[in-house]
Specification:
- It is a single chain.
- About 35% of the residues lie in helices and about 25% in strands.
- The two termini are about 15 Å apart.
- With about 110 residues, it is of the alpha+beta class.
- The radius of gyration is 12 Å and the shape is globular.
- Strands 2-1-3-4 form a 4-stranded mixed beta sheet, with helices on one face.
- A hairpin with a 2-residue loop joins strand 3 and strand 4.
- The longest helix is centred in the middle third of the chain and has 14 residues.
- The chain has one domain: Glutaredoxin, CATH 3.40.30.
- Helix 2 packs across helix 4.
- It is built from 4 helices and 4 strands; from the N terminus they run H-E-H-E-H-E-E-H.
Length: about 110
């Protein structure tokens, strides 16, 4: 699991080309909702160590977040071979995250 948000986001084309299971998490280090969700995200990811986790610092004018239609943080986009299979906005427990991870990493 990735710990820090990166300001150097990949291009949408790169995300679409990802092979296997991936999660793109949009948020910021200063966002209270993002910080509160981290323990739940960590718990869910513990059972899925092979899932690629990309944490992207989001904000106004950030093209990757806009291409996914992100409006609230954190937003987790679950991908299998670059295709979105699930999305969670402001998750407040690990179960929903685990269920979405199980869909991309059986």
């Amino acid at each position: 699991m990735t710990q820090e948000y990166t300001s150097a986001a990949p291009a949408r084309e790169e995300v679409n080309a990802l092979a296997g299971p991936s999660v793109v998490e949009f948020g910021t280090a200063w966002c209270g909702h993002c910080r509160a969700a981290q323990p739940f995200i960590a718990t869910a990811f513990a059972d899925h160590p092979k899932v690629r986790h990309i944490k992207v610092e989001d904000g106004s004018g950030r093209p990757l977040g806009r291409s996914f239609g992100v409006k609230l943080w954190p937003t987790l986009v679950f991908l299998r071979d670059g295709k979105e299979t699930a999305r969670l906005v402001r998750p407040f427990e690990a179960t929903a995250i685990s269920e979405a991870l199980a869909r991309i990493d059986p």
